Amino acid sequence: MLVDSHCHLNFPELSQNIEAVRTAMVESQVGHALCVSVTLDKVHEVLALAEAYDNFYASVGVHPDYEDIEEPTVEVLVKLAEHAKVVAIGETGLDYFRLTGDLAWQRERFRTHIRAAIIANKPLIIHTRSAAEDTIRIMREERAELVGGVMHCFTESLEVALQAIELGFYISFSGIVTFKNAGQLKEVAKAIPLNRILVETDSPYLAPIPFRGKTNQPAYVRYTALEIAQLRGIELEEVMQATTDNFFRLFADAVPCN
Questions:
Q1: I want to staple 31 with a disulfide (CB 3.0 to 4.6 A). Which of 1, 26, 99, 143 is the partner?
Q2: Contact between 191 and 221 (Cβ < 8 Å)
Q3: pLDDT tens-digit map of 37-86
Q4: Which residues of 68-101 are buried (b: 16+ CB within 10 A; e: fewer)?
Q5: Residue closest to 56 by CA, chosen among 13, 19, 93, 16
Q6: In this predicted model, what pLDDT tens digit does every residue of 19-37 receive, in sequence order?
Q7: Which residue in 78, 250, 88 sits closest to 170, CA to CA?
Q8: DSSP string covering the chain, please?
Q9: Are 94 and 132 in contact (CB under 8 A)?
Q10: 136-169 residues labelled b (16+ CB within 10 A) or e (exposed)
Q11: Whether 89 contacts 57, CB under 8 Å
Q12: Rounded Cα–Cα distance for residues 251 and 3 (Å)
């Protein structure tokens, strides 16, 4: 069995065909999915999906790319995290690729999420792009190691991966690792301990080869797992078992179901 550790099933590309998405998951041996929040105004959609299906879980948080929206507070995040199907805080983090200028607000939002995660005792889902140095620095300053979490859709160097692992974080690979031009990322997937790897789709985005350019879905996480198995010279089943075990070890509030 596989777990899609990060997807956005409330986005219209997937929510309008949720039963077909679920059928495809079964056919590809994807047993569970974590539906990740990106804004507070849509968190009810994420929670509704987790409530409707035993094998779906939810997170609560505000993505760093969104400006001029309802800003999360520690109190709001902690309250939302009390929901029985919420297993994580995020996604949160820093993104200096899409946004420029004074991004102090982004760093403060990130700190808010870490502080909420510590109070709620929930792991973090962290997004970082072109901001690795500040991301790791803030994680250390705010003591993110107290709760751990996952560096989602990882695209950074091996050095950054090892620093995150030292802080108790897992490294999650998306379909990007299947791309031909992802040489550095493939090396990371080969080098880090298998017991620190998760797999994800980040669907509806970043479909792996052979579906690149199409709408992604949780069933396609199998292709990411297969790529990691091939890179490491091991069987797909070993990656499936390890990444599933890792998911339920990290997200302790997620309850495996048949």
A1: 1
A2: no
A3: 999 999 999 999 999 999 999 999 999 999 989 999 999 999 999 999 99
A4: eeeebebebbbebbebebbbbbbbbbbbbeebee
A5: 19
A6: 999 999 999 999 999 999 9
A7: 250
A8: -EEEEEE-TTSHHHHTTHHHHHHHHHHTTEEEEEEPP--GGGHHHHHHHHHH-TTEEEEE---TT--SSPPP-HHHHHHHTTSTTEEEEEEEEEETTT--S--HHHHHHHHHHHHHHHHHT--EEEEEES-HHHHHHHHHHTTGGGT-EEETT--S-HHHHHHHHHTTEEEEE-GGGGSTT-HHHHHHHHHS-GGGEEE---BTS-PPTTSTTSPP-GGGHHHHHHHHHHHHTS-HHHHHHHHHHHHHHHSTT-----
A9: no
A10: bebbeebebeebbbbbbbbbbebebbebbbebbb
A11: no
A12: 12
Q: What is the dihedral of CA 162, 164, 168, 174, to 10 degrees?
A: -90
| Cα–Cα dist 213/211, whole Å | 6
Residue 192 one-letter amino acid: I
Report d(CA 229, CA 153) in Å as an integer.
17
209 pLDDT above the threshold of 60: yes
Judge if pTM exceeds 0.90. yes
State residue 256's pLDDT score. Answer: 81
